[in-house]
Amino acid sequence: MPDPTANLARTLKPKTIVVVGDKRANGYMWLRNNAEFTGDLYSVQVDPTEIPAIEEMGVKNFTSLADVPGEIDYVLCAVPRQIAPRIIADCAARGAAGVSLFTSGFAETGEEEGSALQAEIGNIAREAGLALIGPNCMGLYNAKLGVRQSGEQLTGAAGPVGFISQSGTHAINFSLTGAAQGVRISTSVSCGNAEVLDVPDYLDYLTDDADTSVIAMYVEGTKNGRRLVESLQRAAAKKPVVVWKGGVTEAGARATQSHTGSLATSNHVWDAVVRQAGAITTESLDDTVDALKALLLCKPTTGAGMGLLAMTGGQSVVITDAFVRAGLDVPLLTEASYKELASFFNIIGGSYRNPLDIGGTIGFGGQQEQLQRLLDILDADDNIDALAIELASGFMARRWQADPSSLDSLLDQLVAQRDRSAKPLVTILHPGHVEEIAAQARARVVERGLPVFHSFERAAAALSKAVAYWRSRDAASAT
Amino acid sequence: MPSKTSESTADIIATAREQDRTILSEVEAKQLLAEAGVPVVEARLAKDRDEAVAIAGELGFPAALKIVSPQITHKSDIGGVKLGLADADEVAAAYDAIIKAAKAADASAKIEGVSVQRMADAGIEVIVGMTTDAQFGPVLMFGLGGVMVEVLKDVAFRVVPITERDAGDMIREIQGFPVLEGHRGADPADIAALQDLLVTLSSFIEAHAEIAELDLNPVFAYADGAVAVDARIVLRSPQDGTTSADGA
């Protein structure tokens, strides 16, 4: 039997897309989602009441897949479920590389007819080697090619994150939330019921995809756990992999006669699987985006020694609490560092033991040459592996608003620091009472490619996960 | 340390199948494990009082005796376990008491005899086990014994097969790891021996797809070495690959 994964590369980087069954009732969403597609976009629709509006969009419509000219790489199918087998058969006969089914009402319903229909389309696709995505999914997102799951998604500026999702909503939300924080996507697949192609198939593809340097996924379960473990292991040895596991899927009525069996809840085992494979577990959308920021926008580190920079005494204490609770260290600096700090640090209303309470010394950002001395000391300090600095929105937001250059020059300085140093640098910008100004300020941090977090706790959790990944990869390559 | 009554692994499993059992006796489970190189406190089956006394004399005192009956799974609840037996007289008396208690608890139970072993020196109690996960297949578990596992569920899992590094990660992952490192001046446990035990067990499980679940509870960890004091093995039911619902 031909291998559907052999057609996956062509499907995920299509030159020709055909949308089958798009209609007014859903706002022609699939043609609109793909209006900026860089290749050839066609429609197949037999309903004469729908065709004029489709052609008004400038899309050539055919009444059969057989009539579409040239090679077909990716078919987006939105027909009712009873018609789905016929369309899948047409895709197979026409030699299309792949198809995704937005159509739902299959095995996810738990009823007999839906399950039978799903098995039927699966068999047609498997026999033809057709890369069938879904059913019951939102298909593909490839920003560079303009293939989208939602009209909200960006086109053009792609990133290096590959995303696999068993939920269409999470695929879209991740791409939007991530992009707003500097985490952009190369390829995203919403894999739905995964009748033919399952999570490991997409994972294998992304592992070898040159456009993808970090992989994340949202999964609720798997049909073939052993294969997933192998794919995860192979992927995590090459690139960071983040697994957001949704749902507490208890084994339920499973009979167990051992003590071990009664303790092995499904999520406990999932966590172990991810850790064993050398990947990272996350628990929410924000958690996932944060972890990717730390993996993508920070230089890799296996060291946990944090150099912490906060603007006031109170913040120095709680930034330390956050990083220590996340399992990272806040070590003393070297004697050489202390000696140099003692020569200029303003200890009236400040301290430098680590954490460094620096507001007074750097004029809350106004005295950048002082900040540079501090950054250089931490950069040279052997006890320090990574830096975290508070962008104190509580005090500074009004000044940033009144004088945007005050923030810009500070950020430019941090970008230069990041570029010259081997140590990762994260920033924290709390929304505080100035949410809108903070959001604007955050956008300016993001556009410079610096990782910015909403809280000390989120920054600490993300960095801790990144350190765990790089350590595990280090240990794996050492054995 | 295979005993003189040693049957091969295949024979033990075949016997259980013939008798329509999915649960192996402690004696059988330990023979299987010993053959695979997993350190266990040797247990032998005594079919009468004299044999119990003879075995105890051979294995050494203090001795422990436990009822062996497929129908009796909660051995200590019915008075089927006697520990710390100092000499031959105590073993003889314990044998009689156990058989009497077993018959009183379940007159129809088939009594194979009594398992006899030497009491292991006390060590740090850990639990090692294996179960079959619906999605991932056989998984290994490691944890500290007693309250740590009962109440806090402080355990670590890995999918079989595991590497030596995985074994080390499992041991260090549990919250109670400092206990193994030698808490308050106590001797640290032999981590390498625990690691070996886990890796050997992983190979054993990989080689025996017919095993559905396994508990080594407790395992005693010493400053030098580790040994499984009790063992329980549950076989897959032959028809459908799932465990049967009898027993505990």
User: How many domains of chain B, as an integer?
Assistant: 2
Radius of gyration of chain A: 26 Å
The overall average pLDDT of chain A, rounded, is 94
Helix-strand pattern of chain B = HEHEHEEHEEEHEHHHEEE
**What is the assembly state of the chains in this entry?**
heterodimer
Strand content of the residues of chain A, in percent?
A: 5-15%
Task: Tell me, briefly, the overall form of chain B.
Answer: globular
Based on DSSP secondary structure assignment, what is the total number of beta strands of chain B? 11
Q: What is the CATH class name of the largest domain in chain A?
A: Alpha Beta
Share in helix of chain B: 25-40%
CATH superfamily of the largest domain in chain A: Succinyl-CoA synthetase domains
Please name the CATH architecture of the largest domain in chain B.
2-Layer Sandwich
- The order of strands across the largest sheet of chain A is 3-2-1-4-5-6
Global outline of chain A: elongated
Radius of gyration of chain B: 18 Å
Concise structural overview:
Chain A is α/β, with parallel strands linked by helices and 479 residues long. Chain A has helices at residues 8-12, 29-33, 51-56, 84-94, 112-128, 168-180, 199-208, 225-238, 259-263, 266-276, 285-296, 313-325, 335-342, 368-380, 393-402, 404-420, 435-447, 456-478; strands at residues 16-20, 40-44, 60-62, 74-77, 98-101, 131-133, 139-141, 161-165, 185-190, 214-219, 241-245, 280-282, 306-310, 356-357, 386-390, 425-428, 452-453. Chain B has helices at residues 9-18, 26-35, 49-59, 88-105, 147-150, 164-173, 177-180, 191-207; strands spanning 23-24, 44-46, 63-68, 81-85, 113-118, 124-133, 137-144, 155-159, 211-221, 226-228, 231-235.
